[in-house]
Amino acid sequence: MPCIALVPLKTRVGRPEANFARFREAARTLERCDLVVLPELSFTGYLYQEDDLERFAEPLDGPTFRRVAALARELGTGVSFGLIERTPRGFANTTVIVGKQGERKLVYRKISEPAPFTPGSAVPQAATELGMTGVLVCGDLFTEEATKRLPAGTELLLVPMARAFSGRSPDRERWESEERAEYARAVARLGVTAAVVNALDAEGEERSFGGAMIVSARGEVLAESPHGSDEPLRYRFDASPRGRGSR
Fold it and tell me: What's the pTM?
């Protein structure tokens, strides 16, 4: 049965070495799965000031990709991760899916991303053990410019986030009364099973609120980890992501 693991990585913004070390430790304790999915801008945390982007940006085949690829080969699992990518057009909020042999399978650049980022324009998909897999990063899930580009035949949608509430965050009451259902409705509108995973900020006032969930193509929450936590979520599909599964 195909298996996915969502890791709501606890992140210190601007501390990529420490954050990668935390992920490496967590990944080695996970039951082997076909794909491990990390949040948006996985190891730097969400940064948006131009000097920060200049400091932490890397080319696609830079040191972060090489470290993730080596870990994927070591553990025999695919990995989806995010980075600040330095491109010829500027900085991109990029998600990469790495295969079990360390190969690059998919590159997605966030579309609903303001300056100083350069927004992406394409929504590719790639064949994984979980079926034809695509990515929409955080706010792209709610942006028609992005969702209308999702290719036909996508079976599993990865939604990495670095989402925080204004004011108190995490906020379990707000999550359960408002936001959780909003994400489920957005997934149902697309009609594609989705794996949603959010970063958990280790510090700061408006902290990314962590947690992860699997949402069916009909908008049913099939499994979730606690709001406000970095608890990994493992999920096994009975056949394909379009079908029912078991935790």
Answer: 0.95
